[in-house]
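Reopening: structure tokens for the zinc ion complex, inputs below.
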Amino acid sequence: MEKLLLKDCLPEVLEEMKAAFEQKEMPKLLKQLETLEITEVCECGDASCGSFYTDHLRRDNIEVEGIRTESGFLVEVYNGRIHYVEVMPSETGRSIREKITMCK
Ligand SMILES: [Zn+2]
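Re-run output (same inputs, fresh job):
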């Protein structure tokens, strides 16, 4: 199956994450953005939740580090890898969820 890349589907989210990583000087996370995959939308089922996974792990029982972006996304990092991007239920969240569904 084709990989769904963040840069192709949600370039505006990539730019926002890039700005946050640059500002906080996180080169190891910056390097991951070009090839970062969207593996799945959040399983909560809320149509206005725009959260998505970028790997195949599930969040239960894992300790993550959170990095907040300018407009309030929370990028969760596990073991040095970007794991999940939390976009709380909102109009932005709804639009992100719709875009991911259309990209798939
Ligand atoms: Zn959700």
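Residues 11-23 form the longest helix (13 residues). The chain has one domain: 6-103. Marking as resolved unless the reporter disagrees.
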